[in-house]
């Protein structure tokens, strides 16, 4: 499985998230500035709450857009014989189940199906990511009480 195909699938997913964030921001902004949001009493905070919501959506959009930009520029390192780091595609045996993790600086938690295989994107800050970081093929790892895994392959 090519890491570039996984990265492209992730970028597509994140770009869809960007479009959803932008639409949510536009809707919240329109709600905050509509005539119906104007306060009728000093306790009426509908317009204020809508403006807070619009600001939150705008901040999330900005952060996600920066992450997408950085991922587009991300150079995939080769991990043959090297320890796991950002850009590594790691196949593990965890509790007798084979799982494929893609360690990246952003996009953690996204689950993708690429070439018929499930791939979970993780970050170095995640529990699994920090457990795998700096390990090599054949190493054992654990990241929660009672779960012990083994690294089968690192690309």
Plain-language structure description:
This protein is α+β, with helices and mostly antiparallel strands. The chain has 2 domains: 3-73; 89-154, Chitinase A, domain 3 (Roll). Helices cover 42% and strands 23% of the residues. It contains 3 helices and 6 strands; from the N terminus they run H-H-E-E-E-E-H-E-E. It has a 6-stranded mixed sheet. The longest helix has 31 residues, at 3-33. The radius of gyration is 21 Å and the shape is elongated.
The secondary-structure class comes to alpha+beta
Using DSSP, what is the number of strands?
6
The helix/strand series, from N terminus to C terminus, equals HHEEEEHEE
Strand order of the largest sheet: 3-4-2-1-6-5
Major sheet description: 6 strands, mixed
Comma- or semicolon-separated keywords:
alpha+beta, 2 domains, 23% strand, Chitinase A, domain 3, 6 strands, 155 residues
Summary, kept brief:
This protein is 42% helix and 23% strand. With 155 residues, it is of the alpha+beta class.
Question: What topology does this entry show?
Answer:
Layout: H1 3-33, H2 46-73, E1 89-94, E2 97-103, E3 111-114, E4 117-122, H3 127-132, E5 140-144, E6 147-154
Parallel strand pairs: 2-4
Antiparallel strand pairs: 1-2, 1-6, 3-4, 5-6
Helix pairs in contact: 1-2
